[in-house]
Structures are given as C-alpha cells and as structure tokens.
C-alpha cells in the first residue's frame, strides 16, 4: 500500500527528491480540482432565479473540463512515481480551504461566491506553476494550460457580475458569503 510522498522512481531527468516536490504541488492541485468540480455541480443543482438556465447550462462544460484536468494531474502524479489521492477523505483531510457554504440561492449570488472560489483556485495554480517551473517544464506546461481554462471560466462568471462601467458587483469581497451577498444586492 504505497502512500508515501517520496517516489521510488520518477521520470528521466528529474531527481527523486524533485519528483517528490512536484508530486506534493500536484497533489494540492488535484484536491483543488476535485473540490472545484463538486462545487460547480453543487451550484448547478442549487441555482435559482431569472438567470437559472444561463448559469445552469454554463456550468456543465466547466464541470467536464475540470474533471478532465483532475485526471491529467492525477496521471502526471502517477507518471512521476507518486500515488494520486482521489478519495473524499484525502481531499477533506489535506485541503487548506473550507467547504463551499452557499446552498440554494439566486444565480447571481452563486456567481459572486464562485468568483471567490475561482480566485483561490487560480492563485494556487499560479503559485504551483512558479514552484514546479524550477524543476520540470512538462509539469509546468500542464498547469499553464489548465490555468488558461480556469481564467476563462472565471471570466464567464465575472461577465454576469460586471457592470457596463467595468466594476464587479462583488466589490472587494474576500469570502464567498460576502461576495454572494454583495452580488445579490
């Protein structure tokens, strides 16, 4: 039952020690992606109001792409000699963020909260890109491709929150609850 974060082997040209650093960075991204796809589905199921269908239908392609991203990250962990942990228990035990806390709510409130969620995921990606780029351009490339899609998904969310003057209805909210409340007002 392999569960150590230090691999016994890794890809050619990368030391086992650097492979372990890559695996650690990717493991957090895997948890973030698994959490994000579940959060997106949660919103999909719990969104209501006049923007329901637009948001409901916008989210499924995001869910599908985020799930594919998780698969790519998990397979890279395996290729590096690591063990991807895709269980709910590992996600909850190892994540550094709280559960999404908005239940049944207006579409705009959910989008305000999702904006904050996407910001957290994307900031984590950018930090991971900086970290893995020092060891492995192939892993860095995977993360760069994925953050481009995540940036686009956040743009889709923000398009619903943006005024014609270019300001976000969420203002400077830093929590999903505050962002949901500000967006709904």
Task: Describe the protein's architecture and organization.
By secondary structure, the protein is mainly α. The chain contains six helices and two strands; from the N terminus they run H-E-H-H-E-H-H-H. The chain has a single domain, classed as Ferritin. A two-stranded parallel sheet has the order 1-2. Helix 2 runs antiparallel to helix 5. The model has no long low-confidence stretch (mean pLDDT 95).
What's a concise summary of this model?
The protein is mostly helical.
Summarize the biggest pleated sheet.
2 strands, parallel
Helix content: 55-70%
- What order do the helices and strands follow? HEHHEHHH
The CATH superfamily label reads Ferritin, core subunit, four-helix bundle
Structural class: mainly alpha
pLDDT averaged residue by residue: 95
CATH architecture: Up-down Bundle
Question: What radius of gyration results from the CA coordinates?
Answer: 18 Å
Q: State the strand order across the main sheet.
A: 1-2
How many structural domains? 1
Spatial gap, N to C terminus: 52 Å
Instruction: Write down the CATH topology.
Output: Ferritin
Shape descriptor reads elongated
Q: What is the tally of helical segments? A: 6
Low-confidence stretches: none
CATH class: Mainly Alpha
């Amino acid at each position: 039952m392999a569960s150590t974060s230090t691999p016994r082997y890794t890809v050619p040209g990368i030391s086992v020690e650097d492979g372990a650093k890559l695996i650690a960075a990717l493991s957090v991204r895997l948890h973030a992606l698994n959490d994000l796809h579940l959060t997106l589905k949660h919103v999909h199921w719990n969104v209501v109001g006049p923007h329901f269908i637009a948001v409901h239908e916008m989210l499924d392609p995001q869910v599908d792409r985020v799930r594919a991203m998780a698969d790519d990250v998990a397979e890279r962990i395996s290729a590096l000699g690591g063990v991807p942990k895709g269980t709910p228990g590992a996600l909850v035990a190892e994540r550094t963020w709280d559960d999404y806390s908005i239940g049944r709510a207006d579409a705009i409130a959910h989008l305000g909260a999702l904006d904050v969620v996407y910001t957290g995921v994307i900031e984590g990606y950018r930090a991971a890109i900086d970290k893995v780029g020092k060891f492995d351009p192939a892993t860095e490339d995977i993360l760069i491709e994925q953050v481009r899609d995540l940036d686009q998904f956040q743009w889709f969310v923000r398009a619903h929150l943006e005024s014609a003057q270019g300001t976000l209805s969420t203002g400077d909210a830093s929590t999903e609850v505050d962002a949901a409340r500000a967006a709904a007002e």
